Amino acid sequence: HHPGGVKVVQNVNSQIQNALHQPSPEIAIRDVKHVMARELQALDPKTEIKSTDYFNHTFVPDFVLTWGSGSERPTRDVYLRFNVDEPLIQRDLLSLREESPAFISISGSSAHSGQVEMIAAEYEDCLLSSASTLEKISSEASRTPVTQMLKSSLLQGGKGYLVGESANEVQRAVSRADSALTNLNAVEVDKTVRAMNNHFARGFSARIERVMQVLWVSQGGEVSEFPGTLESRTALSPDELIEILPFLLSLEEISSIEFWRNLGESLSLGILQGLESWPANSNLNLLVNANLDRIKTKGVALDRIEFDLFDDPEAPPYWHIQESQLRMRCSEIDLRFVDDRRKTAHRSDVGRAPQWLEIEHRLDRYGIEGIEFTSPGSKTHIKSSTTDGLRDSTDMSALSRALGKLARVISVELRLPNSRDNVEIDFDRSVVDAVGVPLGPHLLAYLGLDLLYQSSQKTLEDLSAFVTVGGSLPWWKDGKVERITGESN
After folding, report:
1. Which of 222, 142, 141, 210 is nearest to 186 (CA)?
2. Which phi and psi (to 5°) does residue 191 adopt?
3. Are 372 and 396 contacting, i.e. CB atoms less than 8 angstroms apart?
4. pLDDT tens sequence across 281-318
5. pLDDT tens readout for residues 324-353
6. 151, 341, 421 from 415: Cα distances, Å
7. Which of 80, 200, 249, 296 could serve as 205's disulfide partner, Cβ 3.0–4.6 Å?
8. At how many degrees (to 10) do helices 131-138 and 12-20 cross?
9. Per residue, what are the HEC states of the chain?
10. How far apart, in whole angstroms, are the C-alpha atoms of residue 207 and residue 178?
11. What is the mean pLDDT of the chain?
């Protein structure tokens, strides 16, 4: 501590030297490992770090790093060495190269060695670096996913001789990538890409470059002008998408439907649920609406919301994510989409069971596969035994009259036009369930608003205009939904 009471933060080299100069060798080794474990964790907080019982051992690593979950988790051995520039490092590379380990110098005096750099080039899957180098890189601020990915990928995917100028090259890439992409500075972006290709395994450099491509386009750059090494495209894998979505959704509006469409090749309801909570904004609306054919849902629960003083009854629909659920607000209705019908199974008495005559005309465009009525003292459940549905085998109005004026429809199973897809409309629970294969959320939303709430034509038109972004997306342009919405190509 400083005499004035201000805590002085020592750099990693000083911490290691203090640890090494303790009288007990056991405590010295323990403290050195603590210092290095903190430094490794600072680079990648998601790394699982296991310390062994050895220190500076010839063939037993000091740490084993592990990433991810599941049985096939990637690992990397880390060997602490007093110096990676001494002649013995060639022996280490030769004998331990099979596992592509990392060798980290804990001496504060590592100087660049051209000879060792040449030797390291022969074992390019191995990483040679120093504690001070890792500290400099980890201390760079992470303002976008690119800088965080550069830092966190270093332990798992870093390779070659990362000391001296090559270390400076990676540190510059981390510190300048943000502004280079924001300003569409092709020269600086090219330097970052080259630094990655030189010092990261190909899988890692390619992944970061893919994210850089997306950011370049999101800032208004042409994908064909991105100065990288990969094919010009902007779609991301699920893992990439999970990492970058929070940043992209926070940007000013990116109005290009093509951007969100290309980006969302791997989008799913699960990925959206993983955002946990996200307020309504134009980027989230565009992301979801541009990929409604990829986001499959097993059901939707609808609830009427009481307008408060600040609610606008005429406001257009919007998407938001709350309590790890994808939701849509449409007029006074809140729609919650689920990936498992069990999540809405407990709901009861939240809806209103209508008389048959109330909904008969709205059901005209569907095939009725089954229907459940209730009347005082009895329930009647009728299911079609033919592929033609109930209309051709049952006089529904006569059935309703026979059940009496107090009869209500609890649920109805419908066959969607021109398809093999069935849905169950449960009026009692105010839920629309996909029967069998999951369906697009826009389709279940339309059915819920139309049949459960018997929404006005204007509300249904507002929904259609919202999810198709004013008609520029094709979601109603196929046979089974044209007839549902009453729209034509």
Report:
1. 222
2. -65, -40
3. no
4. 999 999 999 999 999 999 999 999 887 767 777 789 99
5. 999 999 988 999 999 998 888 888 778 888
6. 52, 18, 6
7. 200
8. 140
9. CCCCCCCCCCCHHHHHHHHHCCCCHHHHHHHHHHHHHHHHHHHCCCCEEEECCCCCCCCCCCEEEECCCCCCCCEEEEEEECCCCCCHHHHHHHHHHHHCCEEEECCCCCCCCHHHHHHHHHCCCCEEEEHHHHHHHHCCCCCCHHHHHHHHHHHHHECEECCCHHHHHHHHHHHHHHHHHHCCCHHHHHHHHHHHHHHECHHHHHHHHHHHHHHHHHCCCCHHHCCCCCCCCCCCCHHHHHHHHHHHHHCCCCCCHHHHHHHHHHCCHHHHHCCCCECCCHHHHHHHHCCCCCCCECEEEEEECCCCCCCCCCCCCEEEEECCEEEEEECCEEEEEECCHHHHCCCCCCCCCCCHHHHHHHHCCCEEEEEEEEECCEEEEEECCCCCCCCCCCCHHHHHHHHCCCCEEEEEEEECCCCCCEEEEECCCCEEEEECCCECHHHHHHHHHHHHCCCCHHHHHHHHHHHCCCCCCCCCCCHHHHHHHCCCC
10. 16
11. 86
How many angstroms separate the CA atoms of 264 and 287, rounded? 7
The burial class, CB within 10 Å (0-12 / 13-18 / 19+), for 421 is: middle
Q: Which of 288, 177, 274 is nearest to 228 (CA)?
A: 177
What's the CA gap between 448 and 426, in Å, rounded? 9
Environment class of residue 5 by beta-carbon count within 10 Å: exposed (0-12), middle (13-18) or buried (19+)?
exposed
b/e burial code for range 74-112 (CB count within 10 A of at least 16 → b): eebbbbbbebbbbeebeebbeebeeebbbbbbbbeebee
CB 154 within 8 A of CB 65: no
Task: Name the amino acid, one letter, at 269.
Answer: L
431-435/422-426 β-pairing: antiparallel
What are the backbone angles phi and psi of residue 76, rounded to the nearest 5°? -150, 135
Instruction: Return the structure tokens found at 174.
Output: 């981390």
The upper half-sphere exposure of residue 122, i.e. CA atoms within 13 Å in the direction of its Cβ, equals: 10
Q: How many CB atoms lie within 10 A of CB 40?
A: 22
The owner of tokens 């030769």 is 94
pLDDT of residue 217: 85
What pTM was computed for the model? 0.74
